[in-house]
Amino acid sequence: MVTRLTPQDASFYASESSSSPMHIGSLAIVQNADGTLDYEKLLEIVDRRLFLVPRYRQKVREVPLGLARPVWVDASDFDITYHIRRSALPKPGSDEQLHELVARLMSRPLDRTLPLWEMYLVEGLSDNRCAIFTKSHSALVDGEEALEIGHVILDSSNTPREVADDLWHPGAEPSDAGLAIRAVGELVSRPGDGVDIAKRAVGSVAGAATSVAGSFGRFAAGLHPSASTAPPSPLNATISRNRRLDVAKTDLEDYRRIRAHFGCSINDAVLGVVTGALRNWLLSRGEPITGYTAIRAFVPMSVYGTEPGMGDLLGSRLSSFLIDLPVGEPNPSIRLSHIAHATEAHGRDSRSVTARTLVRLSGFAPASLHAMSVRAASGYGQRTFNLLITNAPGPQVPMYIGGARMLEMYPVSPLLKDQALSIGLTSYDGRVYYGLNADRDLMSDVDVITSLLYESMEELLDVCA
After folding, report:
1. Is the model more confident about 379 or about 459?
2. Residues of each domain in the chain carrying CATH 3.30.559.30
3. Which residue intervals define the domain O-acyltransferase WSD1 C-terminal in the entry (predicted)?
4. Residue 168 — pLDDT band, cuts 50, 70, 90?
5. Cβ neighbours of residue 338 under 8 Å, at least 6 residues apart?
6. What is the pTM of this model?
7. CATH class of the domain at 212-464
8. 3-153 architecture in CATH?
9. Percent helix, strand and coil across the chain, each rounded to 5?
10. What are the start and end residues of each CATH 3.30.559.10 domain in the chain?
């Protein structure tokens, strides 16, 4: 089957660079004391369920002479053992060693001649644990029609659910001449497509990507709605292709306490914690801070309302917005008040899209939501905001992979151009997990931010007490 990439997919595919690979990462920590989950078991699970995410067996073919956008075609030589790989840490492997491995894997671009995803089973972790790290290209996952593979490998019980037999057979790959003839035919029947081709020919990828943000509604501004350029920040500089990863895990109940005390949302509480950590990180670097210093964050997929059985963080409406985080304010209560007022104004003024279509199959949607978040953020100019913060909810019940219980789940969002840090959050089974993906050279102190997240949380909880 041959399907043309949408303008949004094509813009992600074309805008990728060696220093900014555009893949979404997801790290799951699994309890595997009895060896329930091994490489052969994982291979079997993914192989049997891959038909549920058909894009994962397709690759991108470019059209000769750039006559049209590239197309998705079935990979006739698809080899699942190439995409699902096995790795091991020297026993007993530490979390720090795992994070270093994942950072290196995030640094490597995907092979563009094959389906754009990889999955790693990492063995040897201490305490009888293993890890599964998945990375999928942003062009592969749109969060609406094409979902992330995490949807299909997770189960809500330790007995893997049955799926129908997969009778997939790859379609014949078109020749270059066939792709060119088809593209010319489309240009004749739809001459307006030639305008898009001309734009891409002169490098107008950003213009095409703007339509991505449009699908999520226009965004209310934060504390300074008239500003169009983000304030200067050490978070913005030319980045390398090398990465660092650090993580934090917090209790969802603590955010509920903050919400109850301040009368804000859980999302506000999350942003309050992040803002306090960023403030103290700037101070640790000796950066000049005044009462008006701010870091502008793009916060896609902010959630409103509740959905039965999915916990506080999952609602029926999803949207995105820019907000200036008040890192210059020393009082944590006032910081949170500023944030709550800004997000409340956003909630009144913005449009949103439904999330119900995303919460299906196993009910675990975070990776697809993070992919949607990156798409929305990429539609803005590189100087529009300093930092990307993605917050995607997950189920508040245990999930399993091949009968082994998933303990933790960390998102790893890509770094956008000239942005040295991205922060992703996922809630799962009563905890909120942070994944901090950072440029290796510019953010050698990313672990400082992680430590300060805990301090910022304690600061807000002390106010509640």
Report:
1. 459
2. 212-464
3. 315-460
4. confident
5. 223, 326, 329
6. 0.86
7. alpha beta
8. 2-Layer Sandwich (3.30)
9. 35, 25, 40
10. 3-153
